[in-house]
Write a structure and sequence with these properties.
about 280 residues, globular, two-stranded antiparallel sheet, mainly alpha
């Protein structure tokens, strides 16, 4: 019978250094208070997380309801109907899933950091697929219209291009910086604040793009009728406010220091092997 062997890969060694730096930077007073503070704030976070999920699902369902009842539903034949996939895919991907990926570390705080990183990246991969499908729906509907509708001439489309470009840059830089095992811990520590800032800023841009797109669609579709408070106009305005509220709630939850996941001693070390 032999003891378990400790196997430390370059990635795990870097993770261990990251956690050691974080723990060493905590003052003795904060170290003593951390467990009780974390326990007390987990309850508050859980309550907000429940609200967050309810509002997020309500937002996705409301977009679906709006398209089904006011915009003619979904399909692949009529260009106007093809376009309807665009707001649905973008809302699911760039708003709901994006928000969940941002909060993933704080929500599943008991999991190992390595698992959280992988899951965070997988969610972002799903977002990219939905964003590409949503973008295809927009371009296809414009291309197959008679006459064809020009692309990328509105503020919504410009901000959307910036948002998508930033998201793809964040995804690539995140995979290279935090999943590639050969990257030094010092580099990860330097990149992390920028990754967090631009991630939150990217989400805010996604919310702004959604509101701009919703407003643009209502103005184009309703035209002069919009000023007479039609049902679709009122429902669309409600959707815009829901987007803003949801975005504000997510930003609050992800920036509140008390909700931050505390480092775990096992985050940087993986035990392998078995009793022989």
């Amino acid at each position: 019978m032999t003891r378990k062997r400790l196997k430390i890969t370059p990635e795990l060694e870097n993770n261990r250094i990251e956690e050691a730096v974080t723990l060493n930077n905590m003052t003795e007073e904060n170290r003593n208070k951390a467990p009780s503070q974390n326990f007390n704030h987990v309850g508050a976070y859980s309550s907000l997380y429940t609200i967050f999920q309810i509002v997020g699902l309500l937002l996705v369902f409301s977009i679906f309801y709006w398209i089904l009842n006011f915009r003619g539903g979904f399909g692949f034949t009529d260009p106007k109907i093809i376009f309807n996939w665009h707001p649905l895919f973008m809302t699911i991907g760039f708003v709901y899933l994006f928000a969940n990926s941002i909060l993933h570390y704080r929500t599943f705080r008991s999991l190992k950091k390595r698992d959280l990183k992988n899951q965070h990246a997988i969610i972002h991969g799903c977002i990219i697929v939905l964003v590409l499908l949503g973008g295809w729906a927009s371009f296809a509907s414009h291309l197959y219209s008679n006459p064809p509708i020009p692309n990328l001439y509105t503020l919504h489309s410009w901000v959307g291009v910036v948002t998508i470009s930033m998201f793809l840059s964040q995804f690539v830089s995140g995979v290279v910086s935090f999943l590639y095992p050969g990257i030094a811990a010092e580099y990860r520590e330097a990149v992390m604040p920028y990754h967090i800032f631009f991630g939150i800023f990217n989400f805010i841009l996604a919310i702004a793009t959604s509101v701009l797109g919703l407003c643009e669609k209502l103005i184009f579709a309703l035209d002069k009728e919009y000023k007479h408070f039609p049902k679709e106009g009122l429902f669309g305005n409600f959707l815009g406010l829901l987007f803003i509220f949801y975005g504000g709630l997510v930003v609050y939850m992800v920036t509140k220091p008390d909700f931050k996941r505390l480092p775990k001693p096992e985050d940087g070390v993986l035990l392998t092997g078995a009793l022989e």
